[in-house]
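Example record used in the benchmark description.
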Amino acid sequence: MGMKIKAKMKDGVTEVKLLLSSPMVGKEESETKKVPVSYLTHVTAKVGGKVVWEASTGPFLSKDPYFMFNFKGAKAGDEIVVETIDDKGAKDSDKDVIK
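Model output (structure tokens):
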């Protein structure tokens, strides 16, 4: 898995663009395409240990899903940490500094 995070501050609002790397293949697609089941089940973004955005996901999303979200309460220089969990319980995380 992998991810790309871009976080920018503008007028007190942080805009985050998040691209996740995952095949997002559910059981039905797995059987028809003869590929293993593999998808993200949860995505969480935190700043200073506080959750600022989260999503429960599943195989209904397209391959390599893209998310964009905004939140208030951070400042330039803060670190945003994005954590994912997949259908097998594997965890991944990455971080970016808010510009």
